[in-house]
Amino acid sequence: MAGLALDGANPDVSLLYDINGLAADAPGWFDRVMELVGEYGTMFGMVLVALWCWWSVRRREDAVTSVAGLVWAPLAAGIALLINIPIRGFVERPRPFNDHKGLEVLIAGKTDYSFVSDHATLAMAIAVGVFVANRKFGLAAIGLAVVAGFCRVYMGVHYPTDVIGGFALGTAVALLLAPVAMALLTPLMAAIARSEKVGWLVRAKGSAARGAAGAGPGLGGPAVVPAQRAGDSERNDLAA
Fold it and tell me: Sorted alphabetically, which InterPro entries does this protein's record hold (predicted)?
Protein backbone atom coordinates (compact mmCIF):
# COMPACT_ATOMS: atom_id res chain seq x y z
CA MET A 1 0.00 0.00 0.00
CA ALA A 2 1.61 3.22 -1.12
CA GLY A 3 1.09 5.19 2.08
CA LEU A 4 -1.61 7.60 3.14
CA ALA A 5 -2.73 10.79 1.41
CA LEU A 6 0.23 13.17 1.27
CA ASP A 7 -0.87 16.28 -0.64
CA GLY A 8 -0.66 19.70 0.96
CA ALA A 9 -4.45 20.02 1.30
CA ASN A 10 -4.52 17.09 3.70
CA PRO A 11 -5.27 18.30 7.26
CA ASP A 12 -2.72 15.78 8.50
CA VAL A 13 -0.01 17.52 6.50
CA SER A 14 -1.24 20.98 7.48
CA LEU A 15 -1.11 20.06 11.16
CA LEU A 16 2.35 18.60 10.64
CA TYR A 17 3.59 21.93 9.26
CA ASP A 18 1.86 23.87 12.06
CA ILE A 19 3.43 21.83 14.84
CA ASN A 20 6.83 21.40 13.21
CA GLY A 21 6.83 25.12 12.38
CA LEU A 22 7.17 25.76 16.11
CA ALA A 23 10.63 24.18 15.91
CA ALA A 24 11.70 26.63 13.20
CA ASP A 25 10.69 29.59 15.36
CA ALA A 26 12.08 28.25 18.66
CA PRO A 27 15.65 28.89 19.88
CA GLY A 28 18.18 26.16 19.20
CA TRP A 29 18.51 25.12 22.83
CA PHE A 30 14.75 24.50 23.06
CA ASP A 31 14.85 22.29 19.97
CA ARG A 32 17.64 20.26 21.57
CA VAL A 33 15.52 19.83 24.69
CA MET A 34 12.54 18.70 22.63
CA GLU A 35 14.76 16.26 20.76
CA LEU A 36 16.02 14.72 24.01
CA VAL A 37 12.53 14.62 25.51
CA GLY A 38 10.97 13.10 22.39
CA GLU A 39 13.67 10.52 21.80
CA TYR A 40 14.60 9.47 25.36
CA GLY A 41 13.11 11.71 28.06
CA THR A 42 9.51 10.55 27.99
CA MET A 43 10.55 6.90 28.02
CA PHE A 44 12.81 7.55 31.02
CA GLY A 45 9.95 9.38 32.71
CA MET A 46 7.65 6.43 32.02
CA VAL A 47 10.10 4.10 33.77
CA LEU A 48 10.23 6.42 36.80
CA VAL A 49 6.42 6.58 36.98
CA ALA A 50 6.18 2.77 36.79
CA LEU A 51 8.80 2.34 39.54
CA TRP A 52 7.08 4.90 41.76
CA CYS A 53 3.78 3.15 41.15
CA TRP A 54 5.31 -0.21 42.09
CA TRP A 55 6.77 1.22 45.28
CA SER A 56 3.35 2.61 46.20
CA VAL A 57 1.03 -0.28 45.30
CA ARG A 58 3.10 -2.98 47.02
CA ARG A 59 1.95 -1.49 50.33
CA ARG A 60 -1.75 -1.90 49.48
CA GLU A 61 -4.13 -4.77 50.09
CA ASP A 62 -4.53 -5.33 46.34
CA ALA A 63 -0.76 -5.41 45.80
CA VAL A 64 -0.86 -8.72 43.92
CA THR A 65 -3.25 -7.56 41.20
CA SER A 66 -1.67 -4.10 41.00
CA VAL A 67 1.84 -5.47 40.50
CA ALA A 68 0.45 -7.90 37.93
CA GLY A 69 -0.86 -4.88 36.02
CA LEU A 70 2.56 -3.25 36.16
CA VAL A 71 4.21 -6.39 34.82
CA TRP A 72 1.65 -6.43 32.01
CA ALA A 73 2.58 -2.88 30.94
CA PRO A 74 5.97 -3.66 29.29
CA LEU A 75 4.65 -6.96 27.96
CA ALA A 76 1.78 -5.13 26.27
CA ALA A 77 4.26 -2.66 24.78
CA GLY A 78 6.35 -5.49 23.35
CA ILE A 79 3.33 -7.20 21.81
CA ALA A 80 2.12 -3.91 20.32
CA LEU A 81 5.52 -3.28 18.72
CA LEU A 82 5.48 -6.76 17.19
CA ILE A 83 2.00 -6.13 15.77
CA ASN A 84 3.24 -2.86 14.31
CA ILE A 85 5.85 -4.61 12.16
CA PRO A 86 3.38 -6.00 9.58
CA ILE A 87 1.30 -2.80 9.80
CA ARG A 88 4.29 -0.71 8.74
CA GLY A 89 5.13 -3.11 5.97
CA PHE A 90 1.57 -3.03 4.65
CA VAL A 91 1.06 0.74 4.74
CA GLU A 92 4.61 1.65 3.59
CA ARG A 93 4.24 5.32 4.47
CA PRO A 94 7.50 7.25 4.02
CA ARG A 95 8.72 9.62 6.70
CA PRO A 96 7.22 13.11 6.23
CA PHE A 97 10.56 14.77 5.45
CA ASN A 98 10.93 12.48 2.41
CA ASP A 99 7.78 13.86 0.77
CA HIS A 100 7.51 17.40 2.09
CA LYS A 101 9.98 20.23 1.82
CA GLY A 102 10.70 22.87 4.41
CA LEU A 103 10.34 20.69 7.50
CA GLU A 104 12.62 21.31 10.46
CA VAL A 105 13.96 17.78 11.08
CA LEU A 106 15.59 17.65 14.51
CA ILE A 107 16.94 14.12 14.33
CA ALA A 108 18.52 12.45 11.32
CA GLY A 109 18.89 8.81 10.35
CA LYS A 110 15.23 7.77 10.34
CA THR A 111 14.97 5.53 7.28
CA ASP A 112 12.13 3.17 8.24
CA TYR A 113 8.44 3.69 7.51
CA SER A 114 6.40 6.25 9.38
CA PHE A 115 2.98 4.69 10.12
CA VAL A 116 2.48 3.90 12.90
CA SER A 117 4.90 5.53 15.33
CA ASP A 118 6.82 3.04 17.44
CA HIS A 119 7.42 5.67 20.12
CA ALA A 120 3.73 6.51 20.38
CA THR A 121 2.77 2.82 20.41
CA LEU A 122 5.32 1.95 23.08
CA ALA A 123 4.51 4.94 25.28
CA MET A 124 0.74 4.50 25.22
CA ALA A 125 0.85 0.73 25.74
CA ILE A 126 2.99 1.18 28.85
CA ALA A 127 0.83 4.07 30.05
CA VAL A 128 -2.42 2.12 29.72
CA GLY A 129 -0.78 -0.88 31.41
CA VAL A 130 0.17 1.35 34.35
CA PHE A 131 -3.42 2.66 34.34
CA VAL A 132 -4.65 -0.91 34.73
CA ALA A 133 -2.50 -1.16 37.86
CA ASN A 134 -3.27 2.26 39.32
CA ARG A 135 -5.38 5.07 37.89
CA LYS A 136 -3.47 7.97 39.47
CA PHE A 137 -0.09 6.87 38.18
CA GLY A 138 -1.70 5.72 34.93
CA LEU A 139 -3.00 9.22 34.20
CA ALA A 140 0.50 10.62 34.75
CA ALA A 141 1.91 8.02 32.36
CA ILE A 142 -0.76 8.80 29.74
CA GLY A 143 0.21 12.47 30.00
CA LEU A 144 3.83 11.53 29.28
CA ALA A 145 2.71 9.45 26.29
CA VAL A 146 0.84 12.45 24.85
CA VAL A 147 3.97 14.57 25.28
CA ALA A 148 6.00 11.90 23.50
CA GLY A 149 3.59 11.90 20.56
CA PHE A 150 3.64 15.69 20.29
CA CYS A 151 7.44 15.69 20.31
CA ARG A 152 7.58 13.21 17.41
CA VAL A 153 5.58 15.59 15.23
CA TYR A 154 7.50 18.62 16.51
CA MET A 155 10.76 16.88 15.53
CA GLY A 156 9.49 16.37 11.97
CA VAL A 157 9.80 12.58 12.00
CA HIS A 158 6.09 11.64 12.12
CA TYR A 159 2.71 12.79 10.86
CA PRO A 160 0.04 13.45 13.48
CA THR A 161 -1.88 10.39 12.25
CA ASP A 162 1.22 8.26 12.82
CA VAL A 163 1.05 9.26 16.46
CA ILE A 164 -2.72 8.82 16.73
CA GLY A 165 -2.41 5.38 15.14
CA GLY A 166 0.30 4.47 17.66
CA PHE A 167 -1.88 5.62 20.54
CA ALA A 168 -4.77 3.52 19.23
CA LEU A 169 -2.62 0.42 18.72
CA GLY A 170 -0.98 0.65 22.14
CA THR A 171 -4.30 1.23 23.88
CA ALA A 172 -6.05 -1.60 22.04
CA VAL A 173 -3.36 -4.16 22.87
CA ALA A 174 -3.05 -3.11 26.52
CA LEU A 175 -6.81 -3.14 27.14
CA LEU A 176 -8.09 -5.97 24.96
CA LEU A 177 -5.47 -8.48 26.11
CA ALA A 178 -5.49 -7.31 29.73
CA PRO A 179 -8.11 -9.86 30.98
CA VAL A 180 -6.09 -12.79 29.67
CA ALA A 181 -2.80 -11.30 30.85
CA MET A 182 -4.13 -10.57 34.33
CA ALA A 183 -5.59 -14.06 34.62
CA LEU A 184 -2.12 -15.48 33.97
CA LEU A 185 -0.01 -12.95 35.84
CA THR A 186 -2.06 -12.59 39.03
CA PRO A 187 -1.48 -16.20 40.25
CA LEU A 188 2.20 -15.80 39.41
CA MET A 189 2.45 -12.60 41.44
CA ALA A 190 0.58 -14.27 44.30
CA ALA A 191 3.13 -17.09 44.30
CA ILE A 192 6.00 -14.60 44.34
CA ALA A 193 4.35 -12.69 47.19
CA ARG A 194 4.40 -15.87 49.30
CA SER A 195 8.12 -16.40 48.67
CA GLU A 196 10.50 -15.77 51.56
CA LYS A 197 13.26 -14.51 49.26
CA VAL A 198 11.53 -12.40 46.59
CA GLY A 199 8.15 -11.69 48.16
CA TRP A 200 9.20 -8.05 48.68
CA LEU A 201 8.87 -7.55 44.93
CA VAL A 202 5.10 -7.83 45.26
CA ARG A 203 4.35 -6.95 48.88
CA ALA A 204 6.15 -4.61 51.23
CA LYS A 205 7.14 -6.27 54.50
CA GLY A 206 4.13 -6.42 56.82
CA SER A 207 1.64 -5.24 54.19
CA ALA A 208 -0.21 -8.56 54.14
CA ALA A 209 -0.62 -8.48 57.90
CA ARG A 210 -1.82 -4.89 57.85
CA GLY A 211 -4.27 -5.71 55.09
CA ALA A 212 -5.70 -8.66 57.01
CA ALA A 213 -6.02 -6.61 60.19
CA GLY A 214 -7.75 -3.76 58.42
CA ALA A 215 -10.12 -5.86 56.35
CA GLY A 216 -13.69 -6.09 57.58
CA PRO A 217 -16.57 -8.40 56.68
CA GLY A 218 -16.88 -8.85 52.95
CA LEU A 219 -13.34 -7.56 52.35
CA GLY A 220 -11.46 -10.78 52.86
CA GLY A 221 -10.92 -10.37 56.59
CA PRO A 222 -12.57 -12.34 59.36
CA ALA A 223 -15.92 -11.15 60.62
CA VAL A 224 -15.63 -9.46 64.02
CA VAL A 225 -18.22 -10.53 66.59
CA PRO A 226 -18.72 -8.01 69.44
CA ALA A 227 -17.98 -9.33 72.91
CA GLN A 228 -21.09 -10.21 74.91
CA ARG A 229 -21.81 -7.85 77.79
CA ALA A 230 -21.70 -9.23 81.34
CA GLY A 231 -25.32 -8.26 82.02
CA ASP A 232 -26.54 -10.08 78.94
CA SER A 233 -24.63 -13.18 80.04
CA GLU A 234 -26.22 -13.16 83.49
CA ARG A 235 -29.76 -12.76 82.06
CA ASN A 236 -29.15 -15.64 79.69
CA ASP A 237 -28.00 -17.84 82.59
CA LEU A 238 -31.16 -17.02 84.63
CA ALA A 239 -33.38 -17.70 81.66
CA ALA A 240 -31.77 -21.07 81.27
Answer: PAP2/HPO, PAP2/HPO_sf
Q: Identify the DSSP state of 61.
A: T
Q: CB under 8 Å to 17, separation ≥6 — which residues?
A: 100, 102, 103
Q: Is residue 224 part of a domain?
A: no
Question: Could you give the number of structural domains in the chain?
Answer: 1
DSSP state of 201: G
Q: Which residues of the chain have pLDDT under 50?
A: 1-8, 209-231, 233-240
Q: Is residue 234 part of a domain?
A: no
Report the percent of the chain where pLDDT is more than 90.
47
Could you tell me if residue 129 is inside a domain? yes
d(CA 49, CA 135): 12
* Predicted model pTM: 0.78
Rounded distance between C-alpha atoms, residue 234 and residue 240, angstroms: 10
**Is 15 domain-assigned?**
yes
Instruction: Please give the residue range of the domain that contains residue 71.
Output: 11-191
